Amino acid sequence: MKQESYKKVERMTVAMRSIHWANAAFMVVAVITGLYIGEPYYQTLIAEPAVQKYVMAWNRWWHFIAAIIFDVTSIVIAYLYFFSRFEKPYKKLIPNAHNLNEFGAVFLNLITLNRKKSFDSSHSDSFNTVYFTIFHLLLFFMLFTGLQLYVHGLESGISSIGAWWPWILHVGTDWTIPVTGGSLMDVRIAHHITMWLIIVWVAFHIYYQIWRTIFWEEGDLAIVVGGSKFVKDKK
Amino acid sequence: MGKDTMESVKKLFTTQSAKVDTNRGGEYYTDLYETCRKRLDELKALPVVNNKLDFQETIMDEGLDRRDFLKWASATTAMLMLPASFTPLVAEAAQVMNRIPVVWIELSDCAGNSEALLRSDGPKIDKIVLDIISLEFHETLQAAAGHQAEKQLEEAIELFKGKYLLFVEGAVPLGMDGQYGTIGAKAETFKDHLLRLANGAAAVIAVGSCATYGGIPAAAPNPTQSVGVMDVVSGKPIINIPACPANPSNMVGVVLHYVLTGKIPELDSLLRPKFAFGYRIHDNCERRAHFDAGEYVEEWGDNGAKNNFCLYKMGCKGPMTFNNCSIVRYNEAVNWPIGVGRGCIGCSEPDFWDKYAYERPMANANIKAPTGGVEKTVDEFGLALLTAAGIGIGIHAVASAVAGKKNSEKDA
User: Fold this and answer.
1) Is A171–B312 a contact, with Cβ atoms under 8 angstroms apart?
2) Is B370 among the domain residues?
3) Is B167 found in the same domain as B146?
4) The complex's ipTM?
5) Cα atoms found within 13 Å of the Cα of residue B347, Cβ hemisphere only
6) Under a CB-based contact definition with an 8 Å cutoff, are residues B44 and B96 in contact?
7) Are residues B405 and B292 part of one domain?
8) Does B181 reach chain A within 8 Å, measured CB to CB?
9) What is this structure's pTM?
10) What CATH code is carried by the domain that includes residue A180?
11) Which of B12, B282, B306, B321 is best to mutate for the A interface (most A CBs within 10 A)?
């Protein structure tokens, strides 16, 4: 075997990793509680008085807390896409020749099962960035449809933090009604189906990171834990 | 969405939430009081149109006294979200209702809204108020038939041009040039009939879900291509009073508001009066505590049902439906769907038959709708997609493992 030396590259800052794991944890919470809200799949003890149970209310509480954390991290991530001092992902989204070539090369690497690896794997490549962007768009869609469903309960026009909140929710999310099909139920259906799309997204995401770790042999899985990976030093 | 799509979209982005401002300040109400006072005096000076029933006498004949009437007047004032000082005006408005001519037409419908209006357990004030409105034309209720009825209609719309309120019950079929529904000896299509009558109306009031959004005639696969009034009529004030049937209290509310102020009430983006459709059923439901507690009826007649548990798992759509029936109820406030243990089917929302009325929770619906079954399809499609992704991943993983081995064999 030939001698290989490795070089350490920083890929995710502490802030990025914190957001990643917060998102991952709260996504599990949101799916578990969201499915209960869609159809309560377990029963409560009938002998308990209603006042002590509050099961649906707790499910909704966790679902909304998870959602509002997503909403805020989404805003932070959207900001970092353009203004991060570490790495600005939007630069990888511009369809210029370099990005298109890189996207093609990474995709080719994936479908040829690592037969051909003709790109620089030390930085977050444009294929990966596009894939992450799809996730953030799905999450944004969940954000808007979810807040639309949420504001139905604030029909008094007031909230604990003031009347501006339901107002801004209406201004910001009422478009989801005609876009999803015209009725409040369409918003709910869209919210529900997007959950499945996100789960599919997560399935491929986890698979791809593990696959890369195994086949690229650069410790890619370590990025999200320690923040860095190793690339083969070409000398 | 209405005919003017751009307008509807604009409205969506400028809506101030469904809330009705219940306190607009003393000055506003003083002005409004003056306007109403003036309007009522003008109406009183007008001759009675056709209905010669005297309100006071009718009430007495039905065995109700003035006290009952005033109680009704204050409740109705509250429903219209006006200050208590407007109660005498509302009472007066009820008595001059016969100055406002009403033409009521039926298109693709079951006459259910007319039935709702007629079949109260005993004549109460709401019904009497509707008795004394000057109903110039109503196919189901009038004695006239055939050419006589047509003549009556022509005369009414000519005589009260620009003044009458047009109540429409039923959807408008547009398929086959509207030939699915025709009326009269000349076989005028429902669409032409509606457009002709709407042309001379002061305002058009769509009563019931069919007239509002197409309702059941417009349910999938909608062979007649039925739509609601707002998709056909433009350039006239349109008020939607959906629900199946529309609540007579809300009809009276709209007419009273018009009589009193000469204007249509504040509407939401679906053109429904906010005083009636600004509430979510779920938030005023007597079973709400059971929803929050996670106490659900699991099947008809179980212990939960006997204990009035929440009907969400039996498909209740209260959480997605805006209407005031959990407050005003039906049949003179006797009861309402959730009160009888049957759950809400969202009958006042667009596309309710396809998207709400399947009597299962949203994640377990099993009916065929335009997309080929709504929520169940969502889950099945999602699971299928996930399975496909899983299989793809599996193939790729196995192929990688095998190919990878070959590579390392080569290396070695």
Assistant:
1) no
2) no
3) yes
4) 0.82
5) 23
6) yes
7) no
8) no
9) 0.81
10) 1.20.950.20
11) B12
